Amino acid sequence: MLQYKPLSHLPTAEELPETDHEPVDSELQTWVSTLLAILLTWLWKERTDWFWGVNLGIYYEQNKSAIVPDGFLSLGVELIPEPRGRLSYVLWRENNVVPLLALEYVSKT
Q1: What distance in Å separates the CA atoms of residue 60 and residue 41, rounded to the nearest whole number?
Q2: Residue 84 domain boundaries
Q3: Whose CA is closest to 72, among 58, 86, 59?
Q4: Model confidence over 67-99: pLDDT tens digits?
Q5: Four-CA torsion 102, 69, 52, 98, nearest 10 degrees
Q6: Structural domain includes residue 105
Q7: Are 10 and 96 in contact (CB under 8 A)?
Q8: Phi and psi torsions of 108, nearest 5°
């Protein structure tokens, strides 16, 4: 009898592009995301169940392109799941924890 295990056939973060490689409009946009990361790290220094991603691909379905917000927050996931950190945010590797907040900068482009 055939044993079908759908999660065993899903791509890993190593097999998926990590970002959309689109440049930001200005350096200020990078600073805002970095400042948010610093604040969250300071406020939640005792917690290890959150992740703030910056320009990182969010994969929500196999064979679909990633959504790449300028920043996003997920709660209920490991802060650093691997020694290198995340290459992208792959929902099926994060127990289907969907980001709680997404940040997208408004720009002229």
Answers
A1: 26
A2: 47-109
A3: 58
A4: 989 899 999 999 998 888 999 999 999 999 999
A5: 60
A6: yes
A7: no
A8: -70, -25
Report in angstroms the alpha-carbon separations of 30 from 7, 43, 54, 64, 86: 34, 20, 9, 26, 18
How long is the chain? 109
Report the domain count for the chain: 1
pTM > 0.70: yes or no: yes
Rounded Cα distance between 82 and 101, Å, is 23
Query: Of all residues in the chain, what percent carry a pLDDT higher than 90?
Result: 48
Long-range CB contacts for residues 62-68, cutoff 8 Å, separation at least 24: 62/10, 62/11, 62/92, 66/16, 66/17, 66/20, 67/102, 68/19, 68/20, 68/22
In a domain, 56, yes or no: yes
Tell the residue number behind the tokens 């209920």, with chain if given: 76
User: Token pair of 87, please?
Assistant: 């290459």
For residue 103, being part of any structural domain is answered with: yes
Is position 22 within any domain?
Answer: no
Of 17, 16, 22, 19, nearest in space to 105 by CA: 22
